[in-house]
Amino acid sequence: MKLHAVAAGVLMLAGTALTRTPDHQTITLDAYSGDSSVSGHARLLVTRDHGAFHLRGEVTSDHGCVLLKAVQMHLGLYFGSDMVTRVCGDDHHITVDSHTHHSDVVLTADVGPGYDSRIVALTGTGG
């Protein structure tokens, strides 16, 4: 019996050692205006690619226009943004396949400042 317990323990350790961190990052963002005239969301899969980040997924506008931006964070503010895509209309979807050297992403309801999703740091891994 002890031999079976030891063998089972070794197999469990071997299985744990083979577990690895996913090689991608999954991001979900939601943005909406205070008056509900604009709302949308993004689902992204992020990987590292030749010193940059590869963004793939979909951005959806439920109402109005939303913008997916790649940004640089500094002291809690973002600057140096590149627009990845802009989606407008009721229930419109755009496929994203883009590269960026920026460090973060944000989805913005396109009605003025103050209607951003949470800002997410890009890692390219699930760890």
From TrEMBL:
This is Uncharacterized protein. It comes from Streptacidiphilus fuscans.
